[in-house]
Amino acid sequence: MKTKGSDSMRIGIITGEFPPMQGGVGDYSLELGRAMVTQGQEIFVLTSDRAVPIIQERGLHVQPTVANWGRWGKQKSGDGRRGELQAAQWIKANQLDVVNIQYQAAAYNMRVAANMLPETLGHIAPVVTTFHDLLVPYLFPKAGPVRKKVIYRMARQSSGVIVTNRGDERELAQQGHMPPVMRIPIGSNIAVQPPADYDKTVWREAHFLPHDAFIVGFFGFINRSKGVDTLAQAIRLLLDRGVNAHLLIVGGQTGASDQTNIQQADEAERMVGGLGISRRVHWTGFVTPEAVSAHLMACDVVALPFR
């Protein structure tokens, strides 16, 4: 706990994914932790057992021990690695002052037990939930509106809520009976840090990007909310108007958590082929943060037509 006369806090972050796993929630959680460490806080992270090898940095303590996030029901033999069962012990063992849940349904494999964490843990330490979006978890077939109620209940059981956009802020406000809600837009997880010898023209040539082309960049996974189909159609329109346009899609297509991204990526590739622009769409695949920075700097414009 915070010692008398000290401003330093022991802050816990619960996240369904964390580097080196691929995923925006994990990348954001790491950058958030690092930022708070620079402010003198001690940061503790509880995350998936797939987040290995463990990131070891001063002031940042990562515990990648969660095999799954479970479901409702009583504890069964062999369930000791379920996230909702570990979290209470983790809070007590590390004497945490506050816990921040970084929530996105796909990052927790759509498991509803993660939605119960504020209620389960709130009597041990204050819980602030960051909703990266308000997409719903899986409950059971034809659950319908019940799924949204689970999200709203998670918000209401939190000591405070952080949302990332005005739409989610309005939606929670309309539900009423919410704790304090703060809107904090998600910033970039990628610093401007290209390789030391970076040169735009040389980089383009090395990655088969025409030096005289108008290159549109995109960074992110491929799913329905990201608007890659819109970008593909825009490239086709530019070509029809005589613009030497190319599309550079930077980063992994699917990530570590949301399996529906695989289907969306397949559909995107079929659309690209159907539009006749396959040779003008370049996919980098998963690359290092330095390479992401260099690729984006090589573009003439970056377009993120998220829905």
Question: How would you explain this protein's 3D organization?
Answer:
The protein is α/β, with parallel strands linked by helices and 307 residues long. It is 32% helix and 18% strand. It has helices at 24-38, 83-94, 117-121, 146-157, 166-175, 200-206, 228-240, 260-274, 289-297, and strands at 10-15, 42-48, 60-66, 98-103, 127-131, 160-163, 181-183, 214-219, 245-250, 281-283, 301-302. A 7-stranded parallel beta sheet has the order 3-2-1-4-5-6-7, sandwiched between helices. The protein has a 4-stranded parallel beta sheet with strand order 10-9-8-11, sandwiched between helices. Helix 8 links the parallel strand 9 (245-250) and strand 10 (281-283). The model has no long low-confidence stretch (mean pLDDT 87).
Strand line-up across the major sheet? 3-2-1-4-5-6-7
Tally of individual domains: 2
Strand content: 15-25%
- Name of the CATH homologous superfamily of the largest domain: Glycogen Phosphorylase B
Report the end-to-end length measured between terminal Cα atoms.
Answer: 42 Å
Helix content: 25-40%
Topology order in helix (H) and strand (E) letters: EHEEHEHEHEHEHEHEHEHE
Low-confidence stretches: none
From the 3D coordinates, which CATH architecture of the largest domain would you assign? Answer: 3-Layer(aba) Sandwich
Q: What is the subunit organization of this protein?
A: single chain
Task: Give the rounded overall mean pLDDT.
Answer: 87
Give the CA-based shape: globular
Kindly state the number of beta strands. 11
